[in-house]
Amino acid sequence: MKRxxxxxxxxxxxxxxxxxxxxxxxxxxxGAHQFGARSNATNSVEDVAEMVKxxxxxxxxxxxxxxxxxxxxxxxxxxxxxxxxxxxxxDALIIQDMAIMEMDxxxxxxxxxxxxxxxxxxxxxFLADAGMKRVVLARELNLDQIQEIHKATDxxxxxxxxxxxxxxxxxxxxxxxxxxxxxxxxxxxAQNCRLPYRLEDGTGKTLIENSHLLSIKDLDLSDQLPNLxxxxxxxxxxxxxxxxxxxxxxxxxxxxxxxxxxxxENADRFEKASSGRTFxxxxxxxxxSFNRGYTDYFLNKRKExxxxxxxxxxxxxxxxxxxxxxxxxxxxxxxxxxxxxxGLYFQNEAGEADGAQINIIFNNIVIPNTFKPLAIGTEIYRxxxxxxxxxxxxxxxxxxxxxxxxxxxxxxxxFQLLAIDxxxxxxxxxxxxxxxxxxxxxxxxxNIKKNLAKTGNTPFIVDELEVExxxxxxxxxxxxxxxxxxxxxxxxxxRVNEYHREEHKLEKTTHPxxxxxxxxxxxVSNKMARTFYQRHGVTEIEKAFELQWDPGKSRVMxxxxxxxxELGKCARYQRQTMGEKLVEPLxxxxxxxxxxxxxxxxxxxxxxxxKDAELEYEDEDEQLGYIAxx
Length: 630
Known about the structure:
Strand content: 25-35%
Largest sheet: 8 strands, parallel, barrel
Oligomer: single chain
Distance between the termini: 59 Å
Number of helices: 15
Shape: globular
Structural class: alpha/beta
Low-confidence stretches: none
Number of strands: 32
Strand order of the largest sheet: 1-2-3-4-5-6-7-11
């Protein structure tokens, strides 16, 4: 049996969700009006219902995120919402709070959010055995780890392949709570990781004055799709429920083309997860929409620097270097790629991220609205592509059509049109009319075919067309057009009504959880989640950070990202070139806010603690076994 491979696109709202489907998405994920981890990307149940109807026309799926942690007084409202979502045909829920697994639910499919600590085979297998039909893996995993998980369980695996990266292990960042009592796990991330910080060593010496030291590049694994499929991934997820429509359409289209090329070459083993094909009126390029520069993160293990320290804003597409300054403008390599109105990104003479908008390009000179002095050799990026944006924003920039075969034949009392779509759905219509021969000797069939093929704004395209008459019957073209419209309108309803939604009724399980003690990073915030873990053998459960925060002394982040590595001071990977060790503790400062950094070299992780935390530091050489402990 062939494995279905899916592109999963974000949908901030109904309009962007429909655009993602048109651009080739096999599924979209979106928030309802409550309990989604993006409080600025909510949708009414009515809009979700419209999204479901439109997606199902193309056999694409709709997943709703209910991925915040829940408090006790929210459990019943959450349960009622789930029933509403089930009733309108939603395909699955994406959750992190295990309270939902304890609820009396309809038979709706459940996916485990990446916020549910999905980082090892034992944990993923537990979730699968508990009834999860899909697990969204942690972004930090490498190909070997993904393969190990796939070997341990046959649960569907989903993986982020494009978009912004959370610097923390997903679900394990508490900086927003500690700095303003906003919770990322409750949909209100304040993005403290994108702020500028000063880095000091243990002597108080400033190592970096003012830089976005926790901001990292965006993810691009588009060249890794074949490797990920072979490792066991079935769904490729695009981050971005807060991004604009150009980003969604461009990224979805780019990945669709990449994946289609692979599927065509491997049609014996894999297949597309939805119906139809998309026709593009633009050439998708990921770097022409929002991005901070790209990284493959840790998929191929730790090998490159991934920080985006100069700015957390979009860097965009690399154009070329400044060759010369003339009058109030610049002569730039590859200037012909630029257009009036484009936004430029560069580092100014102070080494700071800066930008300008192009006013006009005149005689090869790029003239900005506001001239800023730049050194020769400055690298220029375009982070707002005016022509490209205008082109992609058009409704017809990506049009999706379902293949169709039409058979137009005569009956005893008139004529019949049969439509059979690429999935085998059928719609039939008849014309009851007294048949009469055409007055002209010319065949009527070419003209009938021409009009039957006009599918216009319907979601169909005619791939095969047969007209079989025993005589050269006369038939008004208005009748041909009318029956075509009726048959195709009926086929739309048939496809939606005959859509098969997978269902799964949860049953309470008792198999042991991989660990017996849960700290606050498991985000247990209500009695039902506590009951779930206890039934599976967990003996000690800490409350979620939001319920027990100890101001000034808490660990607010755990991450695979490492400031030492970015500085070239990693004792594991850069030992030969690192020079003198840094004097710890390293401290990040932003205004009055201060954090201590702790480096756990054995698991290759970094922790961020509030300034009053009392920490014990172990020399990195001792951690790695280079020198003996006394």
